Amino acid sequence: MSILQDFWCTDELALHTFASLPAADLRNCAQVSRSFNRIAVQSILDQHKIWNAQRSAVFELANNPNDLDGLSALLLSVHIKSMANVHFDLMKVVSLPSAVKTFHKMQRFVDRMASLHTVYVSWPSGAYQDRPVSDKMLVNAYKRVQEFLDTIISKGCIELKFGHFNVFASKYKLKKNPAITAAEIPGAPAAGRGSIWESAREYLPFRHTRAAPDVLSPLSEEGNYCRKSSRFSISAPWMSLTPSPKLSQVTKVTTFCTYSTSVFRPPFSQWTFALLQASPVTWMTLSIQDIPDDGVESKLILDRLAEAIPDVTTLHLNGARPGLMKDVVAWLRRFQQLQVLKIEPECFPAGTDIDDLELEALARLPHISKLLSSSYFLCAYLASCRSVGGKSLPGRLKEVIMKHKWTSSTRSAVLAFIKDVERLHNAILEAYPEPELRDLTLHILLCFDRFSDRAEALGRIWDRLDSRILQPNDSDAQKPSIEAPPYFRPTKSQPLLCLELLIPTATVDGIQRGAVDEEAIAFCRMFPTLRELMLCSPAAVVSPSPALPLRKERLDKIKSVCPELSYGWVY
């Protein structure tokens, strides 16, 4: 009998049994004992593909807050007391009452944790923002969001990320008056030559708010916005998230990422800017795709950001709309402590003239050590460095990262890509004196939409090339130069060449087992002098982890086409 008892109590069999139970029974099982709680919770987490909850978890929250999802499972758990990375995905939540209840659940969960390192919140994309919403519901929603955000900060969150967050900000607009209209006219005289915000204060009206005595009043900047009235609110009273008075005492945020500029507009701006000003933020990721079209407002947002995080050392920009980068490049010169600058290639849409960006201001930043962008921007930046300070100024730059979206593996596309690499390499040789090249890395970063298909097409090019080498004929000599081998072989051994592949369908374990060996080799063949290889799985985007050395058998296999390869990493 004891043998049968031991058999029936194994975790594997209990987990298999619990997996077939309905949600209500799983809830009951989780309350029987600590052992059943652990197994029942893990059964629910398995269904939502959360394997190691204490390390990282992605919660895809349903529109019905009563559904038994991964977040509900951890609220039932009596074992898990701390988490490293958590991602709350509310993209399926399409009703405001459900969102309010969901934020309450999120706040309860965060409050139970002893600590949190990274929190990523994907706010609803606006599926219900056109539906009529009463002021009472808005107040309730703001309260829940504020409680959730304050609780995150109180738990020692170091890295805070926001996605979208544009649900309520669209209800606010900057007030207009004749002074603003005059300020928008090109060549209009500016009142003083201070910051943009200091100048703007002279023509933006101040609006007193009706805040309660025990609540922090919105800053004067927020007072210059008004909320659109509706049939539910004729007077459109002011509503805003207000920062906690203890914010400066508890915040530990050093990394702030947002994929919408709505967090810098009411009702969130007062809370956001207070957090940034009180926190030791050194890393900022900013998407400016949806920055307001109003030139005055967009400049105000950028200027307040520069005032809030003057000592930022890493800045990552993506998603800029056409015509904005000229203002952004001029804005970047205010960050005199900047060391790492990443500007995604999509910030420069077709038709953008990089020559008009006045890169000399960017070239004068004294501490830039790493720069990521398109090959055209990098070449223009290096040329600006030479025009500003000769060949000595770019010496602080230790890594140049050329990012390229691989969308085609045709021979013409491959040759165009190699020519971009050669153009950047030549620009580096012109900008750097010989001794300093030893400390510089040329980093080629490739991202894919369909990795396997692209690699297979590229592999066919190499196969045809190999067959022509093995079986030459007289007609080969008459072929045009486009038939030349599509690879990059620099004339000098420096700078060090690194290739990074962002593989959308791979896992770290699969890479280490050789699942993408042949595909990786197809791309490595373009760089015979490659010294370092990095392979990235999509999991690293959700929950970053330290890079692991590539297994020796993998490294040796790739060395067959890149004899100088010394380092290999996977993450």
The counted number of beta strands is 17
Biggest sheet character: 15 strands, mixed
Radius of gyration: 28 Å
Total helical segments:
22
Question: What is the SS-derived class?
Answer: alpha/beta
Mean pLDDT: 81
How would you describe this structure to a colleague?
- Pfam families: F-box-like.
- Residues 11-45 form the F-box domain.
- This is F-box domain-containing protein.
- With 571 residues, the chain is of the alpha/beta class.
- Among the domains are: 282-397; 427-470 and 482-570, no CATH class.
- The protein is built from 22 helices and 17 strands.
- It has a 15-stranded mixed beta sheet.
- The longest helix is centred in the C-terminal third of the chain and has 21 residues, at 411-431.
- The model is unreliable at 1-7, 178-218 and 476-482 (pLDDT under 50).
Outline the secondary-structure elements.
Layout: H1 2-8, H2 11-18, H3 23-29, H4 34-47, E1 56-60, H5 70-76, E2 83-89, H6 96-112, E3 116-122, H7 135-154, E4 159-163, E5 172-174, H8 178-184, H9 196-200, H10 220-223, E6 225-227, H11 247-250, E7 255-258, H12 269-278, E8 283-287, H13 295-308, E9 314-318, H14 325-332, E10 340-343, H15 360-363, E11 370-373, H16 375-389, E12 399-406, H17 411-431, E13 441-448, H18 451-470, E14 496-502, H19 508-512, H20 517-524, E15 532-536, H21 539-542, E16 548-549, H22 552-558, E17 567-570
Parallel strand pairs: 1-2, 2-3, 3-4, 4-7, 7-8, 8-9, 9-10, 10-11, 11-12, 12-13, 13-14, 14-15, 15-17
Antiparallel strand pairs: 5-6, 16-17
Helix pairs in contact: 2-4, 4-5, 5-6, 6-7, 12-13, 16-17, 18-20
Protein name: F-box domain-containing protein
Pfam family, one: F-box-like
Domain F-box: 11-45
